[in-house]
Amino acid sequence: MSDPLIPSPSPTPEGHRPLRAGRPGRKPPLHAGQIPLDPATMKLVEGDIAVQTGRVLANLEAILRGAGATLAHVVKTTVFLADIRDFAAMNEVYAARFGAHRPARSTVQVAALPAGARIEIDLVANLP
After folding, report:
1. CA distance 49 to 117
2. CA–centroid distance for 82 within its chain
3. Residue 74: phi, psi to the nearest 5?
4. Among 10-14, 33-37, 68-72, 76-80, which is the least confidently predicted range?
5. How far apart are CA 20 and CA 66, in angstroms?
6. Which of 23, 44, 69, 105 shows a CA-CA span of 20 to 30 A to 31?
7. 10-62 pLDDT, tens digit each
8. Using CA atoms, how far apart are residues 14 and 29, in angstroms rounded to an integer?
9. DSSP 85
10. With contact defined as beta carbons under 8 Å apart, do 122 and 78 qualify?
């Protein structure tokens, strides 16, 4: 029987097998993304990038808690900023929230985000 996580036939560089798409015998990774919506009103929170970053991370933590995980289970994030000049202020809040845990991260500036948000963060977490 072939491994269901390795497509066959699949092109592989120099005869190497592709990387696994999952972790056999374990829960699949959680993928989640959020903009700074207040969950009580479903409206964008008002405030600067620090306020919006805090709300996004609180929303993501709630999703993680619902799946039995924490920020310590996050392995990768992508931060989308409407203005890259907000990076330093965003990073201050982000670093404080993640503490000593440092998942891989990409940060990019985008032309626009939903609902006029200044930030969106998506993450990948390995569930316990």
Report:
1. 9
2. 16
3. -75, 130
4. 10-14
5. 26
6. 44
7. 444 444 444 444 555 577 889 999 999 999 999 999 999 999 999 999 999 99
8. 29
9. G
10. yes
Residue 37 corresponds to which tokens in the numbers above? Answer: 């919506």
**């924490």: which residue's tokens?**
70
Note the pLDDT of residue 23. 52
- What is 23-125's CATH superfamily? RutC-like (3.30.1330.40)
Mean pLDDT for the stretch of residues 87-116: 97
The one-letter amino acid code at 109 reads Q
Residue with tokens 């409407």: 82
Structural tokens at position 77: 């994030």
Rounded to 5 degrees, φ, ψ at 56 are: -60, -45
Whether the ω angle into residue 9 lies within 30 degrees of 0, i.e. cis, is yes
Query: How many H-runs (helices) and E-runs (strands) does the chain carry?
Result: 2, 6
C-alpha 85, offset from chain centre: 20
Coil, strand or helix at 55: helix
Residues in the chain, total: 128
Tokens of 98: 């993640």
